[in-house]
Specification:
Elements lengths: L6 E6 L7 H4 L8 E5 L9 H5 L6 E5 H9 L4 E10 L6 E4 L13 E4 L5 H14 L7 E4 L15 E2 L6 H6 L5 E3 L10 E3 L4 H12 L4 E8 H6 L3 H15 L14 H17 L15 H4 L7
Parallel strand pairs: 1-2, 1-3, 6-7, 6-9, 7-8
Antiparallel strand pairs: 3-11, 4-11, 5-9, 5-10
Helix pairs in contact: 4-9
């Protein structure tokens, strides 16, 4: 791992505009280098992060981190966001059978997993902003949780092997589904939350937060052995983000520093506790250790 002066870190990090400079070696460190895993879609490797502890530094979904923390996994969170998006668009229904949030009671709604971060955000928004009783929705899952110790609560249904949520939705086996990416633009579906862009703007004005998807973690034993490591990894990631240029629309979807992320973290912790994903509502400062809690955004 280390020759005493220079460390090579096994790393998992997606290819995004805000990570490009560090992944391509345009931003370097005199003290460490990254050995990036050849993984095109990082969330496909999240089980390797939390079950196998395969990576020294890794991108990880925030709810996966919260559930990993709840089960004592030796990972430390950096206050560095690499992915984030507003989730009002993410729950969809068939275009020819429109639904509103109030219509979801008793309906079958497909979700990747009970503990997926996008799902936690969507359900938190439905519950807290639209008054949806989550216990009255029939949730259908397609994957195991990333953290092996997490169990689906009673009442969730597992879709048959080989099924996928988009196909089940358009064929009428589901009434709605939480989807991502290109699926949201499919003309056969429409958002359950009307005018999701306006709804996201209103949500932002209400909470002053951007929904966090993926942050960065470091293996705890490695950090204990190399206390300087957190600050140096944070610096590299922050400089890579800056190299991507200013955020559009005046909202930074990739905030760095504990205070910059406090409101978003408070919300996702609250949503996770409401949904039974964590045993209690953590304080934001509990998510970090003494080294990572002190990290702030680099001065422009």
């Amino acid at each position: 791992m280390s020759n005493g002066e220079f460390i090579k870190l096994r790393a998992l990090l997606g290819d995004y505009p805000n990570t490009r400079a560090v992944k391509q070696g345009e931003i370097r460190s005199p003290r460490l280098t990254f050995d990036f895993a050849d993984v095109k879609t990082p969330n496909h490797a999240f089980k390797r992060v939390v079950r196998d502890l395969e990576f020294d530094v890794a991108e990880l979904a925030i709810v996966t981190y919260l559930t990993a923390k709840a089960h004592g996994k030796p990972l430390v969170l950096l206050p560095a966001v690499v992915r984030g998006k507003f989730q009002q668009e993410s729950i969809v229904c068939r275009a020819d059978q429109p639904l509103a949030p109030a219509d979801l009671a008793g309906r079958r709604v497909g979700i990747r997993s009970h503990s997926v971060t996008t799902v936690a955000w969507v359900r938190g928004i439905l519950q807290n902003d639209y008054g949806v009783d989550l216990n009255r929705v029939h949730w259908v899952t397609f994957e195991d949780p990333h953290v092996a110790e997490v169990r689906d609560p009673p009442g969730l249904e597992r879709a048959a092997a080989g099924k996928d949520p988009m196909t089940m939705l358009v064929e009428g086996e589901l009434d709605a589904a939480v989807l991502t990416g290109a699926s949201l633009k499919d003309p056969r579906v429409r958002p359950v939350i009307a005018d999701p862009e306006a709804a996201a703007n209103a949500w932002y004005m209400r909470y002053g937060a951007v929904p966090i998807n993926h942050m960065v973690v470091i293996r705890e034993p490695l950090l204990k052995a190399n206390p300087w490591l957190a600050q140096e990894v944070f610096r590299l990631l922050a400089e890579s983000r800056k190299a991507a240029g200013p955020a559009k629309g005046g909202r930074d979807p990739f905030p760095f520093g504990v205070e910059a992320n406090r409101k978003s973290l408070e919300l996702i912790i609250r949503y996770s506790a409401q949904q039974g994903l964590v045993p209690r509502q953590y304080e934001v400062n509990e998510l970090f250790n003494d080294q990572t809690r002190a990290l702030g955004i680099l001065k422009e």
